[in-house]
Task: inverse folding
């Protein structure tokens, strides 16, 4: 006589486990909605209820959408060269919300001379100068990218999406000079533009 009791219980246990996992996944999905951005310029910073998340390009795909509990959210999309976009977004459980917009350029054109600011090693963090968002540090850590600024003194603060201040200091931008701010070292000055 053969014992089949163990062989029957294993498939039943697997089916129960899969059912529990499916119900848990569906319940989890119903408690969040998904927010994506389709913004031009794609390097603009995305703030939700005042919290910095990253650049618009980071949230343009379904795989990188921001998961949020259902509710109303105040969204700001900021690039210092463009008029700030302010929008209210309604997030519904299990649904997608997409913010599509082309920011309007500011009419005033800045004229030189300029200095450059580059950051190194900060990852996805917001760069603030004199209390205003200017760029994502990953953008400024990319070869050939920099922030052109009029010469002068600036209060610089670099903050990650968790709200942690990674670096805070006064910086002096000089004409025709590149200032490199590193997460681990002292600021370095280089003559001439990085290009």
Result:
């Amino acid at each position: 006589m053969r014992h089949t009791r163990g062989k029957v219980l294993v498939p039943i246990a697997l089916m129960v486990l899969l059912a529990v996992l499916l119900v848990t996944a569906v319940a989890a999905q119903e408690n969040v909605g998904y927010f994506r951005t389709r913004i031009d310029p794609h390097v603009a910073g995305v703030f939700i209820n005042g919290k910095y998340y990253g650049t618009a390009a980071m949230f343009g795909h379904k795989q990188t959408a921001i998961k949020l509990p259902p509710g109303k959210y105040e969204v700001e999309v900021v690039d210092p060269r463009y008029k700030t976009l302010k929008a209210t977004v309604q997030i519904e459980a299990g649904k997608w919300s997409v913010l599509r917009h082309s920011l309007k350029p500011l009419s005033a054109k800045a004229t030189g001379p300029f200095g450059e600011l580059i950051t190194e090693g900060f990852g996805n963090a917001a760069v603030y100068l004199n209390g205003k968002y200017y760029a994502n540090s990953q953008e400024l850590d990319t070869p050939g990218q920099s922030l052109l600024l009029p010469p002068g003194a600036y209060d610089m603060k670099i903050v990650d999406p968790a709200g942690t201040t990674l670096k805070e200091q006064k910086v002096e931008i000089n004409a025709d000079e590149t200032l490199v701010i590193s997460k681990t070292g002292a600021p370095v000055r280089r003559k001439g533009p990085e290009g």
Observations:
- Residues 16-24 have pLDDT under 50 and may be disordered.
- The chain has two domains: 33-102, 115-191.
- The chain has two helices and 15 strands.
- The longest strand covers residues 165-173.
